[in-house]
Write a sequence for this structure.
């Protein structure tokens, strides 16, 4: 038995780490754009990275360390992805850490970046901002804001997990992501801290397990970035651990952050769960659910609040997966809009479907009636605002 | 030796066919929404259809005829796709033809539809409009308009092909398509007529060959419809044929119509050729070229006229195809914006790239530097207007 209690705030709920965000003059108005997470002792770190072949310099830098290395310092920045910058991009990271070493002892320091692709880091600005770092701070708000790019709100979450009357551990995370979010975790940074006494092998296993149904199940626009990262660090300060409890808490953290990203989809107004069931197998269910959450025509119909199930059906048919016009059923929440017996929507059904679509969040259920495969993907609508944000991104 | 001469107008340049479009009260303002193409004698027909598993009723109706059947009548309509309508949808087509048979002899009549998915045809309106048909008309303009949906201009093309001083044949086509255009020919109807004495086997071979680099190489939004059709009918009236000449003429017809569709991409302002070369093989080049032409982030950058090559690189990296940061080169027309030696754009390069992006049409060349694979896909930008058109489509 265990209990998971939500806590206010973010990373400050976890013992053993210090963190802060400051302004390095990359963002205007003194908004934080540079931050650190550090610990006095070296800690275990586990990370999942983008499947993009052009991995950004900080990811390649991370991967040069020996397997199962420990670290005591993570540097993060926004506005510049340090991607497609070649060897120089990695040398820049080492150069930054050489400067930082004059201020505090670093052991296998790592970096994480997000922003525009194809430009070298402005090292002078970043180095100048090191003077603003207070390495004794535990300021979750400022570092959560430091990693934001097109995000319209900061993303923080924290839980206390009780494994017995007397024992508990904590898990907390910050996250950024709003556009480019896709099957393969695009332009998404997520840093999860815990004080649970989790074995290194469980860190990898549980992170990999839960990423499939959380960050890999969301989609804002189907693109995949060079910098996506989900990272888990543990201080083990609580000395407490229960695998089942930790797994569930990690799932809840990742699920909630993933949904926050969908909710913050660039210009998005609605969060929609595409629940596919009755597919030939889970793999086909996933292909269909993702195709639905990525379809421009489906996304614009969501924006137009139009219960145009024809676009849903057409996308299923185009997915290449097994499907049958006579077995398919489509629901908006619990409103059946298509089945073989009910080909056309009557006025009453249409009215009810319209009402569902007016909601801020709802589900579209596609029962293929073939077999037991199922998967739920999360998506959002496509609005004028999306186009505006992305047409103007660099300017 | 042969020569291909462009002609004014459309289908009226081909002998042996009659065609007309009329209004059946599905479109307002007496705009044509119903049409026919017919011949006095039965003619050979070859067609390529959508890969969508939910093929529309008219496609299934076509496929029920024995292989190599001949026909003397094609009925077309817009505003209603007759898709996801099951057996009833096919019965409706037979019912329409039973009524038409009272007016003229039909042999294996076929139908083609485009419009909203999930509604039965309004047979009463369509039957009432049969009275407006003049079966002796050769009115390409009205039938070209009858198949339009969100198209902003009608698409017609015609050529005379001289195979010797004294011999020639004609080829002409009408086409519709503006949104939903994707790798697999989405919501695209194309009817090609010829009087060339082409063998049946060549019809299939050449249609299949040229569809790959034309209609299957364009993309407006990555969705695939239930109704896509490319159809070739021959009257053989010219009694003339040359395979090489016909193949080239067919390619030119299909290529031009495909580019017209891209140009008419819903809300699109620019036509962009994504020329991928130096890929591991042609298949990988095609995957990358299509990924680029379908990427929302690339499309919004085109709309914003932002030479943001980082999004191009990121999309290539995410394609799953072999690529190497150090071998890749990216050009906007002839402006090199990325190579391993030239990581960041200097001001002058950026100015030149900006100028390219201001153009109505240009190419983005990605040389992967791996091997000899190449493919060119055509795409357009994503504008506010696209969202508006597709959010409002049914209303």
């Amino acid at each position: 038995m265990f209990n998971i209690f939500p806590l206010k705030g973010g990373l400050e709920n976890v013992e053993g780490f210090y963190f802060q965000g400051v302004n390095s003059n990359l963002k205007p108005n003194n908004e934080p754009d540079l931050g650190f997470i550090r610990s006095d002792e070296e800690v275990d770190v586990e990370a999942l990275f983008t499947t993009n072949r052009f991995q950004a310099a900080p990811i390649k830098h991370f991967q040069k360390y020996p397997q199962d290395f420990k670290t005591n310092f993570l540097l993060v920045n926004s506005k510049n992805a340090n991607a497609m910058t070649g060897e120089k991009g990695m040398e820049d990271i080492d150069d930054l850490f050489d400067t930082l070493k004059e201020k505090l002892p670093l052991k296998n320091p790592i970096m994480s970046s997000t922003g525009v692709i194809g430009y070298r880091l402005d090292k002078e600005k970043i180095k100048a901002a090191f003077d603003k770092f207070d390495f004794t701070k535990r300021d979750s708000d400022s570092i959560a804001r430091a990693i934001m790019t097109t995000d319209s709100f900061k993303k923080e979450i924290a839980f206390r997990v009780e494994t017995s009357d007397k024992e508990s551990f904590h898990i907390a995370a910050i996250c950024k992501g709003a556009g480019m979010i896709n099957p393969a975790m695009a332009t998404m940074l997520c840093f999860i801290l815990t004080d649970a006494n989790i074995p290194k092998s469980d860190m990898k296993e549980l992170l990999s397990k839960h990423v499939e149904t959380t960050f890999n199940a969301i989609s804002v626009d189907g693109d995949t970035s060079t910098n996506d990262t989900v990272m888990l660090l543990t201080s083990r300060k609580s000395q407490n651990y229960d695998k089942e409890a930790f797994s569930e808490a990690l799932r809840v953290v990742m699920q909630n952050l993933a949904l926050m990203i969908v909710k913050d989809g660039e210009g998005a107004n609605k969060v929609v769960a595409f629940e596919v069931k009755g597919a030939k197998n889970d793999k086909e269910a996933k292909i269909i659910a993702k195709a639905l959450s990525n379809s421009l025509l489906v996304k614009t119909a969501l924006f137009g609040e139009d219960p145009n199930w024809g676009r849903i059906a057409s996308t299923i048919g185009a997915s290449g997966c097994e499907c049958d016009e006579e077995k398919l059923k489509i629901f908006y929440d619990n409103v059946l809009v298509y089945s073989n017996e009910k080909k056309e929507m009557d006025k009453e059904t249409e009215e009810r479907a319209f009402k569902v679509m007016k909601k801020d969040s709802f589900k579209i259920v596609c029962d293929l009636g073939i077999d037991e495969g199922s998967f739920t993907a999360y998506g959002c609508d496509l609005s004028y605002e999306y186009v505006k944000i992305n047409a103007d991104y660099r300017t």
